[in-house]
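Give me the fold.
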Amino acid sequence: MKKVPLILGLEEGLQDALSRLELWRCDQCGQCTPVCPSARHGGIRTREVMERASKGAMDLSSDKEIWTCVMCNSCSERCQLGADPANVITLLRNAAALRGNLPQHFAEELKLFTSTGMSFPRTGMTKKMRKEFSLPDVDVDQQTMDELGQLISRTRIGRL
């Protein structure tokens, strides 16, 4: 197993995780990029992210491109070499978020989730639509919130 070059002070755990993903498998064929819906609309260029990750040429405290991925996993499904770009991007996002590089809309969703247990606001429109589709109104009980609080405190999400 080849070691991936260190990405600007990357903690050892993430460095090891990237090494286990065997980034060296990526031969820059570019098959991952044309299947990407984000790339088709000017977003992430998956092949370039894989190249920068494998060379250790990323500044995760400021990189914005990794946040334009829609996490559809098309790139990983298309990769014939098993480089798993979607998983690489997920690991890079986790490390970026821990460095304070988290888009505002994700930070707001995280705040909402940790305070209500829901990742979307519970508005009058939400209630109306649920009623139209014969769905019950959603309410998160205290036991669920307590369990959620434990999960948040025991995982990286609690550090964001």
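The chain has a mean pLDDT of 87.
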